[in-house]
Amino acid sequence: MKTYKPLNLTLKYFNLILCFIGLFHQTSAQKSFTNSETEQKVEAILNDMSIEEKIAQITGTRLREIMTDGKLDLEKCKQHIPYGIGHFCQFSTGQSLEPEDLRDLVREVQNYLMTETRLKIPAIFHEEAITGFATLGATTFPQQLGVGCTWNPELVEKNTASTARNMREAGATFALSPMLDISRTAHWNRHQESYGEDAYLTSSMGVAFVKGLQGNDLKTGVAATVKHFAGYGTKNNSTKELYEEYLMPHEACIKVGGAKSVMPSYGVYRALPVTVNPTMLDHILRKELGFDGLVVSDYGAINMVYKKYKRAQNQMTAGAMALSAGVDIELSSPMTYPFLVEALEKGLVTKEDIDQAVRRSLTMKVRLGLLDDKPQIGVDGDLDFDSQENRKLSYETASQSVVLLKNNGILPLKSDVKKIALVGPNAATAHSLLGDYTYQAIRAFWKSELFDAKNPHLVTLKEGLENKLPKNVKLYHERGCDWSAPLEAQIDADGFGDDRLSKLKLISIEGLPQPDLQNATKLAKKSDVIIAAVGENIYLNGEGRWRKGIGLPGEQEAFVEKLLDTGKPVVLVLFGGRQQVISNIEKRCAAIVNAWFPGEEGGNAVADILLGKVNPSGKLCVSYPRTQEKKEINYKDGYVSDDQPQYPFGFGLSYTSFEYNDFKIQEEANLDDENFTVSCSIKNTGKREGTEIVQLYISPLEKNSTMKPIQLKGFKRVNLKAGETKSLSFKISPQQLAQFKNNKWVIEGGEYSLKFGASSTDIRLEGKILLKGEEHFLENGREVFFAESQINNKEL
């Protein structure tokens, strides 16, 4: 284990820190997420621990620190983790190991900990899981922004349950997912990791993610970590907005989903980094939301308090501030928490502070089954992380995530189409399929390493069309243009400062021929239809890298214009992690399909939609901007008449049509009622089966209301055969109308409009309800987040 040289601090600065810590400790009231049996086991271990053993349990490290030439090095173990360790961080993305080899490595490390350290405490092995288990050979699901467009929590739960099975098979028990940040600008480089701009939709998807990952018992499931708490990637400058919107997904995942791990953001709240912010982590998270679990730092976040934000004089005070604010575990390396020994001596932290963090760390290990007499580490036998069942889920998710933005009737492609020109930089590359924090993207960006597109098999659009097209249809292919030249992204100098992006670009074009614009135009002219696959890839989007704008990168727009000039119908297929501004070419395109980063089965899914084997059902979880102006867009504020988006929140087309009828709502209800009901019927008026995502919005009608003009409060996917009608009802709780005003949760009486829509601007049915009663205060905050929905077949 490293030794750390003490740093010199002034007495004046010590006193300031002590006052800061003491202020928030006076009102601290911690809870335990355990039962009496667990408490007894944890306290017995805690009472037997030295200070060094305690610090070890509240820090994380990397496997590379204890390995030599790809093998576990016992001498390095004795040097680096003599007292054990809390977590091994990103253990699988840090390696390039087949499933069985990965499991065996985990078992070897755990065996060392359980036989060679005094306390014999196993470590938590954690990994990213936003698009599935991030490891070699595992199923790669679509990125979350695309998944948000499925509006399908049930499918999300199935996906994360499969992820949990894979992780447990390898010996992993903890995930740094889901990401619950609400994102209202496509300029944010981590926009793709979000479920979009709406708190209700994000909460629904987040709760499903947590439930699927954790299962019914953490001893067989994987602990979910909700991140980034809270308001990361947004302005985060309004208390009302913070409570009503940014906190909601975290609160729902804690109260409804049962999440027991939270990661604070890198961001700042009221001039203080969240990682050391007692208002956020103690007052709001623990006292107001009632969270009683484990708080883990984002990687390097505590050290940033000293290095980047200059809010601590050195690493010792940064660690003391974080621990006192409520951060239990320092990830990913022991940079500041080893100084807690010195901080304890100087009175910057107390023994109780350290013990509480260790207690939570050990409790999590008990909950995960790691402190059982014979803990199960991995699963014996051959392992398959990309089973046919998993691939089917990935395909289904990709199919439902695709949003049809425009269609003049060209899609699905007709039987008289015999020649197709498939052109563009994303037509035949796996780099158009992969979101940030997939195993492949992590290896490519962070390690500058080529990945194997066959493990798991990443199906490109070209391959998908080749798989699906009739034999009598000719498919011509040519790239035609590059993604971006010169390189149109910049590195985050605070975190990296090397030439990583240039290396990543070289990886992305490895083995590809130079684009030939002349040949692409030639092929386009002799084809019946042009499919232009354009957009982004992993070097243009993701954490640590920023693009200069949000239009089509490089010369892609000019390339599409040359295709349009041929006079042949152009089907624009957009890949990427954000909405890309296409207002200059939108009117001339025959159809526009947004595929996002669709994962390993993306090529098959998009091909089936283009050919009509699948009817598109995706709806936008974000507003689609018309310009590249750097601003946040939130449908809830209402779109300005002279500044409409290209496509509104909730928008998406189908190959069939739907009719809304039979609106029913009770005229009055009381504020203290459990719920009230609103219903309608949906009919498929087209000639083919399809799925409509019915959206329920609420608007206040009182002139003085401080509620947003329109808010999503319910949704449901309704599958209908041609000509079929189904009835749909929602039970709405008055708590769903709660507002945070004057530091209290209140429900206000008055008239409200309830609206059924095919999007936030395409309202099909509308009615009013009067909520009677005086202002109703929620003393314990909101407890009800979601509307209950029920679908019934309607008798014709």
TrEMBL record:
Keywords assigned by UniProt?
Carbohydrate metabolism, Glycosidase, Hydrolase
InterPro entries linked to this entry:
Cellulose_deg_GH3, Fn3-like, GH, Glyco_hydro_3_AS, Glyco_hydro_3_C, Glyco_hydro_3_C_sf, Glyco_hydro_3_N, Glyco_hydro_3_N_sf
May I ask which residue range the UniProt record assigns to the signal sequence?
Answer: none
* Pfam families per UniProt: Fn3-like (PF14310), Glyco_hydro_3 (PF00933), Glyco_hydro_3_C (PF01915)
The answer to whether UniProt assigns keyword Hydrolase to this entry is yes
Which molecular function GO terms apply here? beta-glucosidase activity
Provide the Fibronectin type III-like domain boundaries. 692-760
| GO biological process terms on file | carbohydrate metabolic process
Family, per the entry? Belongs to the glycosyl hydrolase 3 family.
- Annotated protein name in UniProt: Beta-glucosidase
Source organism per entry reads Sediminitomix flava
